[in-house]
Amino acid sequence: MSAADVLMIGVLIFAFGLGFFVVNYMMDNVVDDMVGMSQINSSNATVTALESVKDTAARMDYVVFGLFIGLVLGLIVTSWFIGGNPMFMFIYFIVWVIAVVITTVLANTWETVTDMVIFGTTITDFPLTNNLMLYLPIYIAVVGFIGFVIMFAKPYMQGE
C-alpha cells in the first residue's frame, strides 16, 4: 500500500538520521580520546587514519539525504504500478494525514534531542538531515501528495 510507504519514509529518515547523528557524536569523541593517548598518537599515519574516520562519519549526512531521495523515487515508482481504485482515495488520505501527524512528533523529538547540551556542535555536521527532520511534516505532506496524484490521477489502463 503506497499510503503506508509515506509513513515508512518518515520513520526511516528519522531512525537513520538519529542513528547517524549519535554515531557521529560517538566517533568524534572516540577519535579525540584515541588521539589524546600517547600510545596511539605516536605515528602520523595513525593520527591521519583516525582523523579520516571523523571525516567519514561527518559524511553520514549525505547518506540520509540519499536515502530520502531513493525512498521518494521508490514511492513514485510503486505508486505508478499499484492500481489506484478511486474507492480507496479516502483511506489513502487518512493514512497520509496520520503520517503527517506522526512525523510532526518525530520532528519535535529530533529537535529536542539535537538541542541537548551533551551533543554540543554535532548538529553542524548534519545540515541536510537537520533540514529534512525539522521540516519532515512538510516533506511528508508533499511526498504523500505526489504519491496520491500518481496513484489516483493516472488514466485507468485496461487489458484488451
Word description of this protein:
This protein has one domain. The protein has 6 helices and no strands. It has helices spanning 2-35, 44-58, 60-81, 89-114, 127-134, 136-153. Helix 1 (2-35) runs antiparallel to helix 3 (60-81) and helix 1 (2-35) runs antiparallel to helix 6 (136-153). It is elongated.
List low-confidence stretches: none
Number of strands: 0
Portion of residues in beta strands equals: under 5%
Helical fraction equals over 70%
What is the H/E string? HHHHHH
Multimerization status: single chain
Largest sheet: none
Count of the separate structural domains? 1
Radius of gyration: 21 Å
Give the helix/strand class. mainly alpha
Supply the number of helical segments: 6
From the N-terminal CA to the C-terminal CA, the straight-line distance is 26 Å
Mean pLDDT: 87
* Overall morphology: elongated
Concise summary:
By secondary structure, the chain is mostly helical. The chain is built from six helices and no strands.
